[in-house]
Amino acid sequence: MALSRGLRCCQRVFSWIPVLIITSVVLWSYYAYVFELCLLVYLLVFHVCFVMFSWTYWKSIFTPAASPCKKFQLSYSDKQRYEMEERPDAQKQILVEIAKKLPIFTRAQSGAIRFCDRCQVLKPDRCHHCSVCETCVLKMDHHCPWVNNCVGFSNYKFFLLFLSYSMLYCVFIAATVFQYFLKFWVGDLPNRPAKFHVLFLMFVALMFFVSLMFLFGYHCWLVAKNRSTLEAFSAPVFVNGPDRNGFNVGIRKNLQQVFGEDRRLWFIPVFTSQGNGHYFPLKNRSSESQNPLLANEDMWEESDDGSEEGSLGESF
Q1: Domain range annotation of the chain
Q2: Region annotation Disordered: residue ranges (predicted)?
């Protein structure tokens, strides 16, 4: 027990190494650009890019991954029934009965209700268990070591903005340093320590930009299709079978699900995503009508005993 606890502690410490690497590179780039090159005419724009990059990176790292609410946890009586039942088919039927009260449309590959034995919750649509964070994450996209956090419903917008402002930061540095890089190349740059910063700034900015460009382009495609990284590799399974486009409701609505309806806030790292991560509109609306709680939206919103069950519907 003590050994496993020590290993988990070491894992948590080492998981911050990628973040420290990124932070060190960015702080060095700030020092080299502001204090060594001291390009006064560009400093205002540089600081705007630097602040937006730092803000989005901070939000990506420290925004907690959202987990399913209590409505998706087994009640004490249901848990007793489930654990005491030894037949797998009977256990599956118990989960089916419980799921009828919830907006759940996706299934496991076997066709059964998706249930997490570790967290003891019925998984909402697009929710997956993260073995690193040791919890179920709403609309999980992937676990990113560079932010030491799960990218999911609560911080996906921040992650996309982090990628975009990282690219902008790299492009701005490369564009403004390029003229000095050419002077270095032909030997016209004075023999000062700053010339080495010019060389490394140009190299690092271009290297990060190329890698970020492919990653950002991939996630733009995912947003346009309304898919997560996990769903791109393994299509979500519905009652009628797998469907990669099951949550694709059109580019405009797909964008609004991530960035919100107010376009003035799209590029600001504040949470504006639609809903609460427990339910997502389906491309095939007929599937929703099969759930009695969603067949009538008013019924879903009013089916509370003052509780979260009603608030889940109100978010949509």
Answers
A1: 1-64+146-232, 70-123
A2: 282-316
